[in-house]
Amino acid sequence: MNNTIVSYLLDFEIVRNMFDFVSTKFGLNASGILTFFIFFIAAFIVVNVMAVIGGLGTYAERKISADMQMRIGPNRVGPFGILQFLADGVKMIMKEDIVPAKADRALFFVAPTLCLMGVFASLAVIPFSKGLTLTHLNVGVVYLLGVSSLVGIGIFLGGYSSNSKWSMLGGMRGASQIISYEIPVTLSMLAVVVLAGGLSFDKLVDAQTGWPTGWFIFHNPFTFIGFFVFFVGVLAETNRAPFDLPEAESELVSGYHTEFTGMRFAFFALAEYVEVFVVCGAASALFLGGYKVPMDLGGESILGQILQMGSFLTKTFLLYYVVIWIRWTLPRLRVDQLMVVCWKYLTPIALFNLVGCALWVYFLNGKSFYELVMNMAVTSIHSGGGH
Amino acid sequence: MSSTGLNVYMPVVMLFAFGFIAVAGALLVGKLVRPHHPTKLKETAYECGEEPVGSAWSQFNIRFYVVGLIFIIFDVESALMFPVAAVFKQFNEIGMGSIALCSFLVFIGILVVGIVYCWKKGDLDWVKSYQHSAARRTIKE
Amino acid sequence: MFVKFLFLISTLLTLAGAIGVVAVKNIMHACVFLLASLIGVAGLYVTLGADFVSAVQLVVYVGGVVILMIFAVMLTGGDKADFFNKFGFEKVSAMGNKKTYLVGSAVLIVFTLSVGKIIFNIIDLKSSKDPQSYVSTVEQLGHLLLTDHVLAFEASSVVLLGALIGAAIIARPNRGVK
Fold first, then answer.
1. Based on the domain organization, do C72 and C106 belong to the same domain?
2. pLDDT confidence band for A137 (50 / 70 / 90)
3. Which residues in chain A have Cβ-Cβ distances shorter than 8 Å to C79?
4. Whether residue A231 has pLDDT greater than 50
5. Fewer CB within 10 Å, N or C, chain B?
6. Cβ–Cβ below 8 Å for C64 and A106
7. Can you give the CATH number for the domain in which C54 is found?
8. Same structural domain, C47 and C109
9. pTM score, whole prediction
């Protein structure tokens, strides 16, 4: 069933009374308008928080990379330099907007719009907690894949519309990289779907438990490998190093966003950092137990939701740190190595994982590795103690 | 309230709208704040200090297109596999697991044949296909 | 209320995109209008209650077919003057031989069985669970794909295999060796 934040809030007396009050005062359609307002406020909050997280992601990247390179990083603007992203934003908005003479003006506007629209639309299904997610669509996983491909088109159009050789190459490589790595990502998601029996994120997360033994990553060896396949795949999807050839700084100047100045470049960068958060969130929801808290503390109350959100955000930010860590550790892959890794390594491994998970569910009734070990231990204790 | 079922898609539409409004709004606001002094040099494409020669639209290599073709086949395949994967567990519970498993494995198997074919024929290589096939031809002769 | 609004913007997007595809001169702009039109169609699927089909539309069409078309346009690119809509088609005569007729009749049998199942319900595999008792359309689709329409399901994988091999052969760099 589709659950939304509105249906969660309707569990509370106060909200129900508000709905009744509005219905009796203003007629039948009023509850629809109230639903709209609640969705609007929730979506607005989510978008703003995500934009701040995207901005803080740039700051975190600079600080963490500085730490790894024995530097200090930004420390002037605000305490510990934490307001650096705001200063960058103000700078970007005041830069001159140079559109090359031969560029395609319409597509110059469409490209960052598509990137940002795709990323924002994927925020609708990110499972922050059981009740406070915007919607738990029945087809959440497929929807997430679909809107992430809008970003790929945006990247290509950015490269094309600049009418510059560097950008064109970057755009083509970026689009082909994104579409290639969608396949191992989709196949890894399919393995998890087979285990959980549903496509919506809350069903996928509810099939795991709060303790790490119940997470899908430790469920069976196939999902363990599947997590790493998924992680490498989404690293490539978001154009993060070592897969950042489309925006390779040393090769293509700046790849597909060379000619974009000021705010337009800021949109591309914001879309990239928010997308990294989205895919880390998806990885933690699919493999690391998502918003599940050990022993389900708090239950359905507001405190429980906050605990769940904390659990989800902790795991996501840990993965975010790993993503940043990998960028500043590994060298960049060449374009043919990129394609070889995808089609000759990740896709066969992902197919193997999918078949393995299906066989696991069939033969062992979907019991996790931990459950099997526990059962064996219990039966051996029983049979051993029965003498 | 006849649209309660479809209210789940309200945030989707809203977020699409927010994305569009954010970009359009920020660019509009920027138009008021930022300078606008276009010169001819500023408006040429950047090519590391050189003057750009020729148009940017050159004939691109066919391997991009081959990758796109293989991708779309696997995309449609995974789209077809999603409903089957979603009900696999339930079929297993009501005792029809072997039917589901056989259908699933046959489906994947036929497509594995496809990817093996592409691999062997060198369609998945990015650069080496010319040398690969040239070397093969010299060995045959 | 929301259904009407969603229907309105979906139809506007679909129709405006479709008109844009045929009307603009630049092929790249036509591809972007096609993208808008396909997103509108996904919205229309949502209003019909087919949520899985709309998600698949986003994944396959928006994320695959449009990119493929853009790549194809880039491949045949040249000067900016060539990026115009041109009408024209070539007819290639195809003479069948025994193999093609054999494959063709097999395809016809599979096709008739699949279409007959959909329209006239000629095959009816009883299963112990009623498809309508599932909660969402995804699971209904999955149930039907595994029981009643399993022939169509497997045949689609063979069709995809044929498309893959055919496309790989046509797009291979060194053609005409054989």
1. no
2. confident
3. none
4. yes
5. C
6. no
7. 1.20.120.1200
8. no
9. 0.88
Q: pLDDT category, A46, cuts 50, 70, 90?
A: very high
More confident residue, C54 or B125: C54
**CB contacts, 8 Å: A44 with chain B:** 18
Same structural domain for residues C58 and C118? no
> Cis omega before residue A242 (within 30°)?
yes
Map residue A3 onto helix, strand or coil: strand
- pLDDT value of residue A234: 93
- Distance between CA atoms of residues A340 and A336, nearest Å: 6
Residue A147 has pLDDT above 80, yes or no: yes
Could you state, in chain order, the average pLDDT of each consecutive group of 10 residues for chain B (141 residues)? Answer: 70 92 88 77 62 58 84 92 91 86 93 90 67 49 42
Q: Which domain holds residue B74?
A: 62-140
Tens-place pLDDT, residues A204-228: 999 998 888 889 999 889 999 999 9
Tell me the pLDDT tens digit for each residue of C74-123.
877 644 545 455 544 444 445 567 777 888 898 899 888 888 888 877 77
Residues from C contacting A (CB-CB < 8 Å) are 1-2, 26, 28-29, 32, 35, 51-52, 54-59, 62-64, 66-67, 70-71, 74, 135-139
> Residue C146: which pLDDT band, with cuts at 50, 70 and 90?
confident
Residue B86 domain-assigned? yes
Is residue C19, in this structure, part of any structural domain at all? yes
Q: Which residues contact A93 (CB under 8 A, 6 or more apart)?
A: A262, A263, A266, B26, B29, B30, B33, B34
Domain of residue C164 covers: 98-171
Q: Residue B30 falls within a domain, yes or no?
A: no
Of residues A273, A268, A244, the one with CA closest to residue A177: A244
**Distance between CA atoms of A75 and A59, rounded to whole angstroms?**
10
Determine, yes or no, domain membership for C150: yes
Please check whether residues C74 and C108 belong to one and the same domain: no
B24 occurs within a structural domain: no
Q: Which two tokens stand for residue B73?
A: 């086949």
Structure tokens at B135: 């070397």
Q: Per the structure, how many domains does chain B have?
A: 1
The pLDDT, as a whole number, for residue B127 is: 59
- With an 8 Å Cβ cutoff, are C32 and A32 in contact? no
The answer, yes or no, to whether residue C45 has pLDDT greater than 90, is yes
Count of domains for chain C: 2
Longest dimension (CA), chain A: 89
Domain-located, residue C89: no
Question: Do C19 and C70 lie in a common domain?
Answer: yes
Instruction: List the one residue out of B117, B130, B111 whose CA is nearest residue B63.
Output: B130
- Residue with the two structure tokens 């479709």: C18
Residue C130 has pLDDT above 70, yes or no: no
**What pLDDT score does A286 carry?**
93
- With a cut of 80, say whether residue A241 has pLDDT above it: no
